[in-house]
Amino acid sequence: MRWLVTGAKGMLGTDAVALFADHGHDVVGVDLGDLELTDGDAVKAALADVDVVLNCAAWTAVDDAETQEEAALLVNGTIPGVLAEAAAATGTRLVHISTDYVFAGDATSPYAEDAPTAPRSAYGRTKEAGERAVRSALPDDHLIVRTAWLYGAHGACFPKTIARVAGERGSISVVDDQVGQPTWTRDVADLVLRLAGAGAPAGTYHATSSGETSWFGFAQRVVEAAGLDPAIVEPTDSAAFTRPAPRPAYSVLGHDALEPLGIAPIGDWEERWAQASGEVLGLS
Length: 284
Description:
Blueprint: E1 2-6, H1 11-22, E2 26-30, H2 40-46, E3 52-55, H3 69-90, E4 93-99, H4 122-137, E5 142-147, E6 150-151, H5 158-169, E7 172-175, E8 179-180, E9 183-184, H6 185-197, E10 203-206, E11 213-214, H7 215-225, E12 233-236, H8 269-280
Parallel strand pairs: 1-2, 1-3, 3-4, 4-5, 5-10, 6-9, 7-12
Antiparallel strand pairs: 8-11
Enzyme class: oxidoreductase
Keywords: NADP, Oxidoreductase
Function: Catalyzes the reduction of dTDP-6-deoxy-L-lyxo-4-hexulose to yield dTDP-L-rhamnose.
């Protein structure tokens, strides 16, 4: 299978390129400066001999999107549509990465793949626009894969920041009123590969670890993996960390759409963190 991965130098894109190649696939990675993703003709040419395109390109600066929504919409909304139109013209399958931010974040049980979206931030609105564009232009050959709370070895992420700050200060306060599923980028790439290999029908799927925790609970496991006492992590609430973009209070995603395909969801977040922590924190 021949893949094109956009955003190939990002945290998820880097893992995807490496994992796909390790599984014997022909992979081409493109990033800023390699391919103008707003140019439909250029994108069509790039997809001419590609079986699947994985779109990891995204505006991920959540707070900046509040004041630069038009720029964020270009990346998160317009480009997915261009990719989908090019994929439709070339007979290419598109896997588009989306986010928990398309939901309101006020649920009390995991969001199903078909749950109504209601983004509360500019970032969430632009990602929702990307989902709509993909569904509209490529209704029969797209996979929208939502993920959340990503961490990995190849970019800035929550665990690296927490381990560094906790080590420097000797203590750290982390919010305990936002709940989600810490998810390793390598596991997301693996699930994408399994979905494509299974010929999954067009639709929306969730790629997050199983189980749930708060940022505070995750931070405790991070500092423990870094060789520090988890007691140095102190709980606080979101009111202590006011930011331009509202954060979802509840970001737990359900995985029921995987079951009919015989595809296992990503494992428990604590087990996956135990597996990933050495590489992510540079300890192995």
